[in-house]
Write a structure and sequence with these properties.
It is a single chain. By secondary structure, this protein is of the alpha+beta class. Helix content is 27%, strand content 35%. The protein contains seven helices and 19 strands. Strands 2, 4, 5, 7, 8 and 9 form a six-stranded mixed beta sheet that branches. A six-stranded mixed beta sheet has the order 15-14-13-16-17-18, covered by helices on one side. The chain has a three-stranded antiparallel beta sheet with strand order 1-3-6. The protein is elongated. The N and C termini lie far apart (70 Å).
Amino acid sequence: MKKGLYLLLLLVTLAVGSVYQINLLMALAIGEILLWICLALVSWRCRRHLKLGFEKRVAVVLRQEKAPCTLRAENTGRTAILRFRARLRYGYPWEKKPKKLSVYGSLEGREVQLSRVELPAVSCGLLHLTLDRVRVYDWLGLTSSSFSKQKAEAWLAVLPPFQEVPVDLSYRSAGDSAALLLSSLPQQNGDSEEVRQLREYREGDPTRSIHWKQSARTQTLWVKEYEQQSDRLVELHLGLNRFAFSTPSQREGFYVILSALVHGLLRALPQIPVYWTDGEGRPQGMQLSSKEGAEPLLLLLYHLEQGEGLSPEHPAPPVAPPGRILRLDFTTGLQLLEDRKLLCSFSPKQYPQQLSCFTLQL
């Protein structure tokens, strides 16, 4: 609006001054032109000193209606930037067209500013963020300078809400080798005298396992973890099938159920190995601990789903000792199997209700 009115005033001044040969109006028109040029130079100079980006390359949030995203703006010059505008594009890779949002701000000389923007994060996965088409305005807001070559990108990793599947480690039959092993283990913490390590207290740990001296020194509850408790008894195999999901709800259900399974298993066991095969049939895997939870696995699967391969430095899958492991399989078809036998088949539409009343008995 200001820009249009200023140009209209300039044209009227030039027209009236040239038609009626009024030197004062011609001088005023020349002054208006010079002012326009000066303001354009100011906006161009401010544009060169503006640096926009994201506070984190990859930020992790839980799935919710609005997820926070932190933008970082820096003024590398001494001249104040009174107003700038940037276009923020965001969307999931499977969406056809990303959404757009305009972000405004201002900076004093040599200032770094962090601003928080809330974006809808209603699905699990990687939300791609791009800052482009930045426009910087002069002090009066009459001219502006824009550029699109400087582009900042980031990812917002949206994780499922925290949920645990209850896991019952009681054995099923005396003829099962894994069941025999489980039945031979101590039924309560503290039955073994060999302490493997100390770890922070988690809800549900018996008070008899608390290491009172360490807890008093650190002002934090620590518990003793015994050697036999750390034996790996369950391994999880994922049937990814090249991430071939027939519907968005099936894809969402896969990550929600997987997260709940991993958290439930890590509640009962200190660590579990997870295995899968890549697109070329090569075995891959990683070891999950109760301290990290399911987050490392979910982040890795998100990147694999986008076609990003594992780096050469990625460690080989852990080798399971023969005869000591109970195998669980979970597929993209939302089927959970124990030793190749179907335990539960979740529905893409009814999985929240099924998950809320499901108990994994091993």
